[in-house]
């Protein structure tokens, strides 16, 4: 047994890429040929328990070079830290990383550096939950409101949400939490599926997968739109015919349009009763989203997967620009900043339907929604986590979907850990999945 307190002794990074563009999985109007990728980080300690913290930023290909380099820049802050102290207060590390005066110039709190910080912080939270022997959602749900409050950076938020407001929300969230935890363990958390709707799929595949989604228990599916209006009308008609009137169909433009085009295109799809239009325009255009929302109602407006930090989420809510908030586990500054986003959403009464898919985003974000249900908003009404059935087999504790619901994870941690053999096979460009390319072969 170690005589001194365990410390962080290694920060290993990996450039992991999956050749998803070969099947057009993940294709949309702005991203026709993504290779789903993870800039992956592993925090090792010298503790006898052998536990390590795993985290990652999701990218879709060549950007992974930059993302891994950004995580590498944070290594000096981590090496030598006391593991117990780090896990007891991830916010202290968050303040240090966000506050690096030279790296901060690249943001602040946005883009590649911020995603790197998010990957590292999520790895810390994975380690913290493993050391506590509980899944992350349970660690958060059982935490004292005052401690959760200490994990949130309220800078730039207090005109909309004060620490006192947040404390009140967290205390109220504790009421009835045990009953909701029992429901969660029994039933799971509602999911919707994007798998039928990738833009690269033909109508036959779309209809077949849409019917399958309903048979599998999903109450909502999502279609990518925005490349060709006539195609979208035909595809939405096909999907509506496949699923019938009782199933929600969301549509997702992935930032394709200017505001007037977003309004016109969404209205053209209205006869097929789309539930929400997602990312109709630039993720930075708060007032643009508000304008689209005013003009396409009652179709809802959703965004968030590219919202870079809590400040933009605050403004989207202040401006009445969104009906549905789609936080992403790996876009902002980790669990700490997503706690702020969940508190903002609860304060404004806007439902959170997280973005997921990619590599491991489903695995991560389920923990945030489950915490929100058990101990913050206290409801799953009009709330669903996105589900995409790709790449889960590469994770040690993959998500488990049952009858259209995410099953509550029971394994300690954040479900972020890739299988060692999957890491080895997908390291770019030397892993087996990529070495074939070099020889002119495909998988
Ligand atoms: Mg989307």
Describe the protein in words.
With 443 residues, the protein is α/β, with parallel strands linked by helices. It has two domains: 8-134 and 422-434, Enolase-like, domain 1; 173-419, TIM Barrel, CATH 3.20.20. The mean pLDDT is 96. Strand 5 (220-224), helix 11 and strand 6 form a beta-alpha-beta unit. Strands 4, 5, 6, 7, 8, 9, 10, 11 and 12 form a nine-stranded mixed β-sheet that branches. Strands 1-2-3 form a three-stranded antiparallel β-sheet. The chain contains 18 helices and twelve strands. It has helices spanning 63-72, 75-78, 83-88, 90-98, 111-132, 136-142, 145-150, 163-174, 177-187, 203-215, 229-243, 259-269, 286-296, 310-318, 334-348, 361-375, 420-426, 432-438, and strands at 8-17, 37-45, 52-59, 189-197, 220-224, 248-252, 274-278, 300-303, 324-325, 385-387, 401-402, 405-406. 43% of the residues lie in helices and 14% in strands. The structure holds magnesium ion. Magnesium ion binds next to loops.
Q: Main attributes?
A:
binds magnesium ion, Enolase-like_N, three-stranded antiparallel beta sheet, 443 residues, metal-binding, nine-stranded mixed beta sheet, Enolase-like, domain 1, EC 4.2.1.68, single chain, TIM Barrel, globular, 43% helix, 18 helices, alpha/beta
């Amino acid at each position: 047994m170690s005589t001194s307190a365990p410390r962080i002794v290694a920060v290993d990074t990996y450039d992991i890429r999956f050749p998803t563009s070969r099947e057009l999985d993940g294709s949309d109007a702005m991203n026709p040929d993504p290779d789903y990728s993870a800039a992956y980080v592993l925090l090792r300690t010298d503790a006898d328990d052998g536990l390590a913290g795993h985290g990652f930023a999701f990218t879709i290909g060549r950007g992974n070079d930059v993302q891994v380099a950004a995580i590498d820049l944070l290594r000096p802050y981590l090496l030598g830290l006391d593991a117990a102290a780090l896990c007891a207060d991830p916010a202290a590390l968050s303040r240090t990383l966000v506050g690096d005066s030279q790296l901060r110039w690249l943001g602040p709190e946005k883009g590649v550096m911020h995603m790197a910080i998010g990957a590292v912080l999520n790895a810390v939270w994975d380690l913290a939950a493993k050391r506590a022997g509980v899944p992350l959602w349970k660690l958060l749900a059982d935490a004292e409101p005052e401690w959760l409050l200490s994990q949130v950076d309220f800078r730039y938020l207090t005109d909309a949400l004060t620490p006192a407001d947040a404390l009140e929300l967290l205390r109220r969230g504790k009421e009835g939490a045990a009953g909701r935890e029992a429901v969660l363990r029994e039933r799971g958390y509602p999911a919707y599926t994007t798998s039928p709707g990738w833009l690269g799929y033909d109508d036959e595949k779309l209809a077949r997968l849409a019917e399958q989604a309903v048979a599998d228990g999903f109450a909502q599916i999502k279609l990518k739109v925005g490349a060709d209006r006539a195609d979208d009308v035909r595809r939405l008609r096909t999907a509506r015919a496949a699923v019938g009137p009782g199933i929600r169909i969301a549509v997702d433009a992935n930032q394709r349009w200017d505001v007037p085009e977003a309004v016109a295109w969404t209205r053209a799809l209205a006869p097929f009763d789309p539930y929400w239009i997602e990312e109709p325009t630039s993720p930075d255009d708060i007032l643009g989203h508000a304008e689209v929302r005013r003009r396409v109602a009652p179709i809802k407006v959703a965004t968030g997967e590219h919202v870079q930090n809590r400040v933009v989420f605050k403004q989207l809510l202040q401006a009445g620009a969104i009906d549905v908030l789609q936080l992403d586990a790996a876009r902002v500054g980790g669990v700490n900043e997503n706690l702020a986003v969940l508190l903002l959403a609860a304060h404004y009464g806007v439902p959170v339907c997280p973005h997921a898919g990619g590599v491991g985003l489903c695995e991560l974000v389920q923990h945030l929604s489950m915490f929100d249900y058990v101990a913050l908003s206290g409801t799953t009404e009009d709330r669903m986590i996105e589900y995409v059935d790709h790449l889960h087999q590469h994770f040690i504790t993959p998500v488990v979907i049952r009858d259209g619901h995410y099953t509550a994870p029971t394994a300690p941690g954040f479900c972020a850990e890739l299988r060692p053999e999957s890491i080895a096979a997908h390291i770019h460009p030397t892993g087996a999945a990529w070495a074939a390319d070099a020889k002119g072969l495909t998988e």
